[in-house]
Specification:
The protein contains 5 helices and 3 strands, in the order H-E-E-E-H-H-H-H. Helix 2 packs across helix 4 and helix 3 crosses helix 4. Strands 1-2-3 form a 3-stranded antiparallel sheet, sandwiched between helices. It starts with 11 loop residues before the first helix and ends in a 12-residue tail after the last helix. The protein is α+β, with helices and mostly antiparallel strands. A hairpin with a 4-residue loop joins strand 1 and strand 2. It has a single domain, classed as Winged helix-like DNA-binding domain superfamily/Winged helix DNA-binding domain (Arc Repressor Mutant, subunit A). The longest helix is centred in the first third of the chain and has 17 residues.
Length: 154
């Protein structure tokens, strides 16, 4: 997906990399109302791809910036794209914690909610992203991250 070309000639990877940079720059501006997420529709040559980027911060990572990027490819050229799969900021935060190996109990404690609330969020995340387990969720998210030897990595 990342190597596909947009109708503008730019690759999906390049576009998302620029979008992440812009999101981080907006968040870094002093006294600015900063956004923690960005979303949009990419026009590919034969289809559409909806993207959603979340700027994540983790106290363990200190000042490093991390992103959760979700892509949903639409095989037809119809612009009537459903946003059913789009995660809320809280769902993205929980998905991020899941990818870091946190248990429901740990996430509940960290976010100050009940374990049952986290179970409900996890179910919704799985449904929206079309996965059936935590390992499948992690696999899908990390498929979007090029390895250091990947030709797209810089």
């Amino acid at each position: 997906m990342l190597t596909q070309t947009l109708v503008t000639g730019e690759t999906v990877y390049s576009h998302l990399k620029d979008a992440c940079y812009c999101l981080a720059q907006e968040h870094a501006k002093p006294n600015a109302v900063s956004q923690w997420n960005s979303s949009g529709l990419l026009r590919l040559k034969q289809s559409f791809c909806h993207f959603q980027i979340f700027l994540l911060r983790d106290e363990l990572l200190r000042d490093r910036i991390c992103y959760l990027i979700l892509l949903h490819n639409h095989p037809d050229k119809s612009e009537s794209v459903t946003d059913k799969w789009v995660l809320t900021k809280r769902e993205a935060e929980i998905a991020s914690l899941l990818t870091r190996g946190r248990t429901n109990k740990q996430i509940a404690g960290e976010l100050g909610v009940s374990e049952n609330t986290i179970k409900t969020f996890v179910k919704r995340i799985f449904i929206k992203l079309g996965v059936h387990s935590r390992s499948e969720l992690i696999s899908e998210i990390y498929k979007l991250t090029p390895s250091p030897n990947h030709p797209l990595a810089e």
